[in-house]
Amino acid sequence: MTRLLEVNNLHTxxxxxxxxxxxxxxxxxxxxxxxxxxxxxxxxxxKSVSMMSLIKLLPPAAQITDxxxxxxxxxxxxxxxxxxxxxxxxxxxxxxQDPMTSLNPFMKIGAQLVEGIIYHKRLKRSEAMKxxxxxxxxxxxxxxxxxxxxxxxxxxxxxxxxxMIAMALLSEPELVIADEPTTAxxxxxxxxxxxxxxxxxxxxNMSIIWITHDxxxxxxxxxxxxxxxxxxxxxxxxIDEIYKSPRHPYTIGLLKSIPSIHTEAGSRLPSIAGxxxxxxxxxxxxxxxxxxxxxxxxxxxxIPSLKPxxxxxxxxxxxxxxxxDVTQREAAE
Amino acid sequence: xxxxxLEMQQEEKQFSLVKDAFxxxxxxxxxxxxxxxxxFLFFIAIFGPYITPYDFLSQDLHSRNQAPSFAHWMGTxxxxxxxxxxxxxxxxxxxxxxxxxxxxxxIIGIFMGSLGGYFGGKIDAFIVWLIDITMSVPSLLLVxxxxxxxxxxxxxxxxxxFLITGNEFYRxxxxxxxxxxxxxxxxxxxxxxxxxxxGQIMSVRNKNYVVAAEAIGVPTPKIVWKYVIPNSIGPIxxxxxxxxxxxxxxxxxxxxxxxxxxxxxxxxGNMISDGLRVWQLYPHILAAPAAVLAxxxxxxxxxxxxxxxxxxxxxxx
Lengths: 333, 317
Description:
The complex is a heterodimer. By secondary structure, chain A is of the alpha/beta class. Chain A is built from eleven helices and twelve strands. Chain A has an eight-stranded mixed beta sheet. In chain A, β9 and β10 (232-238) form a beta hairpin. In chain A, α3 (109-120) packs parallel to α6 (157-169) and α4 packs across α6 (157-169). Chain A starts with a strand and ends with a helix. Chain B has helices at 2-14, 16-27, 29-51, 83-119, 121-136, 139-165, 173-204, 208-215, 220-231, 233-257, 268-277, 283-311. Chain B has twelve helices and no strands. Chain B is mainly alpha-helical. Chain B starts with a helix and ends in a 6-residue tail after the last helix. The interface between A and B is medium-sized, with 37 and 24 residues.
């Protein structure tokens, strides 16, 4: 498969009152054409910010201080505002978390959908509307021609999320970034949206980055999972590998805290002790060191880089950022 | 049949945002009263010349300073002019001034406010600084200074232009009065509009739908115009209604002080000023324009309050 996206050593920080908040600290990953990547992590771990940094969709206080983003060979990190705007309108689509507030209440659905493509594809309004109707059909909204003339308040939450998906797809992007698209929806609608995205992916052969904090949601959906903690990637592996043999202590903790069918009723779920790292100081050690059960002297002094796992039966695509080999430790104990 | 009714229901629903606000406005009795008075004022201002019983300039020296009667509902002034006709024409002056200054101040305010609110940073700091400076100068003083310093120059310039071009247009000094009044009033009023719009835009610009529009590559001016401004419009409408009333009071104050619209063009302000000289002998000359001005001001503030309640979602019951 051909490479679509390559991100190297991305750093993003926010200017705050007395200095900076280091939100993304050296994130590197790649994405192939047609691949679906799941990005997991707790709130504030930098998963949204790092993906938003790709297309510079950040609040004014944010600064991308370092890094390289190559989309189809084009370097986005040095692109001007106008170039980025063109990329957003053609190659990259975004699906947002909260469909209830992501549509302008003063504009009809149709007008909002076509705003981007009229500008970037130089389509006539009527043609753009036809295109919009086509995509509304595709995302499963019936009576689409009529819906184009409706206002957002006339649609339910699930339908608005479908509209948001249609909006992201309308420019026929190669990459779609879905930022927790089902968090604000109830479980039945969530299942529908997940099915829809899987279906669309097959039809349109897009690459998708799906950001979530729900590990169980990603099973059976994505090809690969990237676990983030404290602004950096701590583990990255193909989907089966990560559930079967997680190697980073944080991932292990995360998986343990998902209730399973075997969990004894009434028992307490294991949780990861401690609090998320303080991001107001630039990290100099492993971000997870303070909460890690396997922590060593080295973990508090040096930042581990993302390296392929070693050992027997190791998958070459499985990479972790950890100084400790958890499997050996467990064997020794 | 079912298709049609469905269509109609949906048609109705689309306007529910505006209709809801209107229903709430009408339900408020004081606001309704204010609105009716304001509509009546506009009607008078537009059709004034056709409904006045007398010409506002025609003098009748045989019937000077007459008390109100059936022939002259509000009496006559010291030159025997019909006060009702002059009040009606004064409404025209007041409405023209109110609309143009509000409109002008709104244009400047929207431009400056959205610039500062949307882009933030140094641009915003500069605009806030400009707003603070303008607001720190006493408005009455500023308008007087502008009028007194600019007027002779402007009149001279117009005279010169007339001599050069021979165009009759340049002999119209009433125009100078109006331009100066509009200009100076807009100049002192824009900071208020800019402040409101800046605050609104700052709160709207971080809304998800703005980010969503950015994500599909909608250019910034379009985002401001189609996403940000419509969603900030509630307080702006309230500002407009308050500003219209305020502008009328301002115009009257300046005309009263002799820096605004000059006689013989009637303005409530200069009528009050005329009336004040003889109020002990002929109180009606003062009372008529003063009462009308008071009524109009109250009407605008009722309407403004009503609009504020009707358009503010937090006030909805």
